[in-house]
Each structure stands twice: as C-alpha cells, then as structure tokens.
UniProtKB/TrEMBL annotation:
PANTHER family in the cross-refs: GLYCOSYL HYDROLASE (PTHR10353), LP05116P (PTHR10353:SF36)
Molecular function in Gene Ontology: beta-glucosidase activity
Catalytic machinery residues: E166, E361
Regions that span the bilayer: none
Family that this chain belongs to: Belongs to the glycosyl hydrolase 1 family.
EC top class named in words: hydrolase
This enzyme's EC code(s): 3.2.1.21
Catalytic reaction annotation: Hydrolysis of terminal, non-reducing beta-D-glucosyl residues with release of beta-D-glucose
Domain of life (superkingdom): Bacteria
A biological process term (GO) from this entry: cellulose catabolic process
Keyword Aminoacyl-tRNA synthetase recorded: no
Name this polypeptide is given: Beta-glucosidase
C-alpha cells in the first residue's frame, strides 16, 4: 500500500560532505583544515584514519555523478571546502578551488540533478583555527566573506544553498567536548562558539541573498536537533541548550530567557553584541533537519553546573543523566526510533509554521559485507538499512499527512566515507566503497532507493 505520489517539486536526494569524500588534501592550492590537524593528531581518530584520500571524489566526481544519475535523484547535497577557496588568511580567491566546484555543479546539471550546496560542513581552515576558530568572533566574518566568493561564482546555477551543517556539532562537540575538531574541551566556552556560528549563519544568508542570481534558488540551514524522551524537566533543559539556542535566534530573532537562566554561573553571554540578533534573524526558504535517533534523559542528583574549566560536551546539563535507550541499535550505537523523526517534524511545523522543512540527512551505519555472487557480480545485501529507511520514510509520510510541509528527503550517505572520529570503521553509504581500490558497488539499499524515487511514492507501514 502506498500514498499517492509526493507533491510536485519534492526532492529525493542523497548527501555527502567535502572532507569525508574528496581527499586530494594537498592539491590545487588547498590549505590544511582543522580536521586535517585533528585527524593527524595521534589518538583523535579511530586507527589514526584521516581524510587525506577518503573516497578520492576530487578525482572521481564524474564517476560519482554518473552513479547519482543512475540512482535517479532529483538533487545532490554536497559541501564546499573553504580551504580550497580561501587558502590564505585574507588572501585572494583560489580559482582552482572554485573551478573544481564549478565542474561538479555543471556535471550535476548536465545529469539533470539539482545542486544543493552546503557552504560550511566543519572543515574550517587551520589558519582560522589558530586564532581560536569559532571562539573568535572574526571567524563569522571570514566565513561570510568566503560565502560571498562562492556565491558570486555559482549563484546562477545552485538550486539550494545551506549555510551551516549541524552547528550543534561544530560548537558543543568541538569546543565544549573533545570528540570533534579542534576538540578543545572548553565546556561552557562552547556557548561562545554557538553564538558565533549563529552570527555567521545570518551574515552568510545576507551574502547569499546579495550574490545569487538564480531566480528560484533557495537558502536554508541544516540543524541536527536533539529529540529526547524521558523526564520532562530534563527534556526541556536539553531542548533549550541543544535546539532553541539555534532555532530561536535564527527564526525568531532572540535567545530564550530561560537559556540565560539555566546557564547562569557558567556563561555570562557578554559576547552577544548590539545588533547581533538582527544580523542572525534572516529570512529562510527552508529549514533542513538531520535525524538519526532519540535520547533518553532524566534529572539526576549531581550538581547542576560543571566547573568552568571542566570539559563538557553539553554544558549546562551536568545534572542530567543520559540513559541507555532500548534497541535495536545501529553500528553507531544509536537507537532506531522512526517516531522521533515524525515528532521533530510535527513539533517544528507547530512552533515555526512559516518555514517549509526538508530532511537533509537520515541513514544508518551497518556492518556491510561485500560478497561475490555465483555469477561473479559483487553485491552488498544491507536489508537492515532498507528496513531503517523504509520506516523513516514512512514516518516522514505520516508527518506530511499531519500537515507538515516537507519539501524533500536526502539519504545519508551516497557513499561509504570518512566518518569523522570513527575513521573508516562505520559505513553509512548506499554505495559500498573499497578503500584500497576505490571501487564503488551499489548496495541493495541503492537499488531499493532507486525504485522508491522512480515511483515518487512513500512507503506505508
């Protein structure tokens, strides 16, 4: 049983990120990023893996786009690497870097695929990292300047622009904790990174609006909102610190007063300057949501706040316990809870009804094995991923039936790739990559998604 076809203009897509797939880190004028430095630091990534080669998509992009065309996607979400565009601080644009992304965009258009470009997906140039990275207010202006350079070249062809990918990760995991580059472990210092990322978003939107010439181009941001269950007080607190700290300034032009109250004593928020919130609050055409799993939280008896110097991925939540979630779980240890996707989409539509939504990432890491069939062909039988995606597409369909204006759905990821601190140990792709030979093999999930896209229908369970 299936629904009628999805609305006209609905985007079926898939997604990647520059540092996870491109490789070629020392070619055509690219400078090091904070992820180059982090991954080359002993003990930071599993097995010492780096993105030096990744899936070599810098050289194999034509082959990859041919696979995208075979898949039949409407749109492809990729990211642009600032280290390729502005490799020296305050220096000229690196034309070879822009040339590469222009070739990617033109190849996509020739294949009938709409380009969806994420302008910042975590690979900040190391020269900005050396000056404090997102703890330095000036970084927001440098990233906005880079955005202008990209938009001036590609603004006549890119269909959808995404300013930031998951600022929760590039603040809390990167500056509060130690899991992501640069891994500073500054605890409450993460709030300063949060604000500067918010500011960068607003400045980037303004640069995009002024440079884009494609009449129907859309501007968006992608957030990985935390969907927690359990104790109501704990859920409310984590919602403030993980979600509304981005949603409210971007979509409403303010930080919630409760946020200041619950962080009193660990953050004074004096880094917010006059006019910042007006800069951050810019009109958007779409809000992107990355969704994978839910959490389970409760208030504990521990002291409310960590010491200001204590490394904390989630500052302001030291009196909250994260409890084990019921299975099944993916290879990442994340629970499988499709209802969480339904809940977050409906909640966003109820609270921010003016903005259409799209799922910019959803997928599953599986213990994929490449097998050789009797006829000599290679295959990956990832029925667990197909089941995961089926259940989540069904959740999206139910959200649409509940009135959510869902504009698209991008499966993560098109390819197995460098999974950040987990290196190459986790496979999210619907295309299997042999990292020694770089051979690509479409998995069963690729073929399943191919049929889903062709039908223009969402599953009903």
């Amino acid at each position: 049983m299936t629904l009628p076809t999805v609305p006209a203009g609905f985007m079926f897509g898939t997604a990647t990120a520059s540092y996870q797939i491109e490789g070629a880190v020392n070619e055509d004028g690219r400078c090091p990023s904070i992820w180059d430095t982090f991954s080359h630091t002993p003990g930071k990534t599993l097995g010492g893996d780096t993105g030096d080669v990744a899936t070599d998509s810098y050289h194999r992009y034509k082959e990859d786009i041919a696979l995208l065309k075979e898949l039949g996607v409407d749109s492809y979400r990729f990211s642009i690497a600032m280290p390729r565009i502005v490799p020296t601080e305050g220096g000229p644009t690196n034309e070879k870097g822009l040339d590469f992304y222009e070739r990617v965009v033109d190849e996509l258009l020739a294949a009938g695929i709409k380009p969806c470009a994420t302008v910042y997906h975590w690979d900040l140039p190391q020269y900005l990292g050396d000056k404090g990275g997102w703890l330095n207010r000036d970084t927001a202006y440098r990233v906005a300047d880079y955005t202008r350079r990209v938009a001036e070249r590609l603004g006549d062809r890119v269909d959808t622009w995404i300013t930031l990918n998951e600022p929760w990760c590039s603040s809390y995991l990167s500056y509060g904790g130690t899991e992501h580059a640069p891994g500073l472990g500054g605890g409450p210092a993460a709030f300063e990174a949060v604000h500067h990322l918010n500011l960068a978003h607003g400045l980037m939107v303004q640069e995009l609006r002024s440079a884009i010439t494609k009449p129907d181009a859309k501007v968006a941001v992608t957030l990985n909102l935390q969907v927690n269950r359990g104790d109501a007080d704990a859920v409310h607190r984590t919602d403030l610190i993980a979600n509304r700290v981005f949603l409210d300034p971007m979509l409403r032009g303010y930080y919630p007063d409760e946020l200041f109250a619950v962080t009193q004593g660990i953050c004074d928020w004096k880094f917010i300057e006059n006019g910042d919130l007006e800069q951050i609050h810019q009109p958007l055409d779409l809000l992107g949501i990355n969704y994978y799993s839910t959490g389970l939280v409760k208030m504990s008896d521990r002291p409310q706040f960590p010491q200001p110097t204590e490394a904390s991925t989630f500052p302001g939540c030291s009196d909250i316990d994260w409890l084990p979630t019921e299975g099944p779980h993916t290879e990442m240890g994340w629970n499988i809870d499709p209802n969480g996707l339904y809940d977050v989409l409906v909640r966003l539509h109820n609270n921010y009804p003016e903005i259409p939504l799209f799922v910019t990432e959803n997928g599953m890491a599986c213990p994929d094995k490449l097998v050789v069939e009797a006829d000599g062909t290679k295959a990956v039988h990832d029925s667990d991923r197909i089941d995961y995606l089926t259940r989540h597409f069904d959740a999206a369909r139910r959200a649409m039936e509940a009135g959510v204006p869902l504009a698209g759905y991008f499966v993560w990821s098109m390819f197995d790739n460098f999974e950040w601190a987990f290196g190459y140990s986790k496979r999210f792709g619907i295309t299997y990559v042999n990292y020694e030979t770089q051979e690509r093999t479409p998995k069963d999930s690729f073929k399943w998604y191919q049929k889903l896209i062709a039908s223009r229908e969402l599953p009903v369970l």
